[in-house]
Automatic annotation (TrEMBL):
One of its GO terms (cellular component) is cytoplasm. Pfam families: tRNA-synt_His (PF13393). InterPro entries: aa-tRNA-synth_II/BPL/LPL (IPR045864), HisRS-like_core (IPR041715), HisRS/HisZ (IPR004516), HisZ (IPR004517). It comes from Rugamonas aquatica. This is ATP phosphoribosyltransferase regulatory subunit.
Length: 386
């Protein structure tokens, strides 16, 4: 096997693609700052028990694990930065007021999340801590939609769901509550035969409600159908009202869909959840939602909601960036040449000095001008290249 091969679903990012990713990162982080979000940088690895605190089984399975040669304890390479940022809010910042945090960094997965997905996503996201009201959920949803708009996506579908619906349905049935994890998996897969078999001994009301969930998807009219077919329980009424409000806040910004069985992230989410889809990608390009109980494991329960997306996956959907016009300059130490090059770079021009005996082979830059001496040999001027 050639020694330059990389592991499956791990790849180098070449210049033109790297520039797209970096420009997206800068655009989004700058926009987060305009909303008042503060940047944090969690470490790439942590002690395993801290990294997986409050996370679901999915995160555990996706996490690379290794032994720390200094302490002998198990370490994990982060598969998701959300828990790390929750730890920073709860344990390090420890503020009493609302805190807005954002982040960007690589994460590693033991297995790819999709057929062509990388195992090294570049995750970027934003989180709000300290406010339990729907206003925080609406702001996060708005920020996620704004992020895709900054990337140039005009056709976006927003899928909404709420974990409160399932939890309210099974709350009064001990058998159903015991099977919560299995119900989550069956609903996520929309496995109706599996649901029928599992729910045979549940109370009729609970069973009928669970079997209705896989069919409660579509446009916002689904919420009306849900009120008709689901039990009249306070938890369900609250969840449906929150979904209606979030759907209304996205009007004219995205196509809105409701799917009450799409429960990805159910294991640590606690309220409304959303997923964003764009043309060209079958999987969600961004996911977000409320997770109020994660901070408890760090000694401080805080209301929390946020979203994240993979910049590498997003950049893959964008057209190749046009090469930037630049200036070719000769190599030399003459003060006049150095001064002219510095002046051009200060004004924002890209100036590439040709090293002796080499031509320039560039993916990102197109040298359409050259820095040359004038006819008198006294001044450096720009000459257009045909």
């Amino acid at each position: 096997m050639p020694n330059w091969l990389l592991p499956e679903n791990i790849a180098d990012v070449l210049p033109s693609e790297a520039r797209k990713i970096e420009e997206l990162r800068r655009l989004m982080l700058d926009n987060f700052r305009l909303y008042g979000y503060e940047l944090v940088m969690p470490p790439l690895l942590e002690y395993l028990e801290s990294l997986l605190t409050g996370a679901g089984e999915d995160t555990d399975l996706r996490t690379f694990k290794l032994v720390d040669q200094l302490s002998g304890r198990m370490l994990g390479l982060r598969a998701d930065m959300t828990i790390q940022v929750a730890r920073i809010d709860a344990h390090l910042l420890n503020r009493a007021s609302v805190t807005r945090l954002c982040y960007a960094g690589s994460v590693l997965h033991t297995r790819p999340s999709g057929l062509h997905s990388t195992r090294e996503p570049l995750q970027i996201g934003a989180e709000i801590y300290g406010h339990a009201g729907l206003e925080a959920d609406a702001e996060i949803q708005e920020l996620a939609l704004a992020s895709l708009a900054l990337a140039g996506f005009t056709e976006v579908r927003l899928d909404l769901t709420h974990v409160g619906v399932l939890r309210a349905i099974i709350e009064g049935d001990a058998a159903a509550a015991k099977d919560e994890a299995s119900l989550y998996l069956l609903l996520r897969a929309k496995d109706v035969p599996g649901l029928q078999a599992l729910t045979e001994k549940y109370s009729p009301v609970v069973r009928d409600a669970l079997l209705a969930l896989p069919n409660l998807y579509g446009d916002v009219e689904v919420l009306k159908r849900a009120r008709e077919v689901l039990p009249d329980l306070p938890g369900i009424a609250k969840a449906l009202a929150e979904l209606a409000a979030l759907a209304a806040s996205a009007i004219n910004r995205a196509e809105v869909a409701i799917d009450l069985a799409d429960l990805r992230g159910y294991q640590y989410e606690s309220g409304a959840m959303f997923a964003l889809y764009v043309p060209g990608l079958p999987n969600a390009v961004a996911r977000g939602g409320r997770y109020d109980h994660v901070g408890e494991a760090f000694g401080r329960a805080r209301p929390a909601t946020g979203f994240s997306l993979d910049l590498r996956e997003l950049a893959r959907l964008l057209p190749t960036a046009e090469r930037k016009h630049s200036i070719r300059a000769p190599w030399g130490n003459a003060p006049e040449l150095k001064e002219k090059i510095a002046e051009l770079r200060k004004s924002g021009e890209v100036v590439i000095q040709s090293l002796p005996g080499h031509s320039n082979e560039l993916d990102e830059f197109e040298c359409d001008r050259a820095l040359v001496l004038d006819d008198n040999g006294s001044n450096w001027i720009l000459k257009n290249l045909g």
